[in-house]
Specification:
The chain has helices spanning 10-22, 40-43, 63-72, 84-111, 120-141, 154-163, and strands at 2-5, 27-30, 51-53, 59-61. It is an alpha+beta fold and 164 residues long. The chain has two domains: 2-72, Glutaredoxin, CATH 3.40.30.10; 84-163, Glutathione S-transferase Yfyf (Class Pi), Chain A, domain 2 (Up-down Bundle). It has a four-stranded mixed sheet, covered by helices on one side. A hairpin with a 5-residue loop joins strand 3 and strand 4 (59-61). The chain is flat and about 50 Å long.
Length: 164
């Protein structure tokens, strides 16, 4: 397997951690999707990373889809429990963590525009998402070591990647 990844991407980091935790060998290919000539659009019509290129040439893109695929392979440890309510709990936490990451990316992109074109209202909305999301995750964790269950799972990985 080959993983197209960018070092600063929390989404790609989530996939790298899942692969490493499961002991699945992969070749890391660093791509900056915004650079001219990047290979990302060749594998993902949206030109985004991460992208997992399977040994048979098939392609899986989007971190959520890639991690689900890795779980389907049955390689331990299990990062998503089979129990529907526990599985849902992991996915809800992942969605919140990814949403915080999305808001941070939008802030960075907005701040990269010329100062006269930047919208402080837009940045403020994104900052409120970051604050609300991180507060909700902190409340969800409480004093526990793991978000769901008694071992490292997808929820923990997603939040760790969100935090950097």
């Amino acid at each position: 397997m080959k993983l197209l990844s960018a070092t600063p991407s929390p989404y790609a980091r989530k996939v790298r951690i899942a692969l490493i935790e499961k002991g699945i060998p992969f070749e890391l290919m660093t791509e900056m999707p915004w650079n001219p000539g990047t290979a990302a659009p060749k594998f993902n019509p949206l030109g985004k990373i991460p992208v997992l290129v399977l040994d048979d040439g098939r392609v899986v893109h989007d971190s959520k889809v890639i991690v689900e695929y890795l779980e389907m392979l049955g390689q331990p440890p299990q990062l998503l429990p089979a129990d529907p309510s526990l599985h849902l709990a992991h996915k809800q936490i992942e969605a919140t963590a990814d949403g915080v990451c999305d808001a941070v990316v939008l802030i960075v992109l907005e701040r990269s525009r010329a100062p006269a074109l930047q919208s402080s209202d837009w940045i403020g909305r994104q900052l409120r998402k970051v604050e609300a999301g991180t507060r909700a995750l902190e409340d969800e964790l409480g004093g526990r070591q793991w978000f769901v269950g008694s071992a490292l799972g997808l929820a923990d990985i997603a939040v760790g990647c969100m935090l950097g």
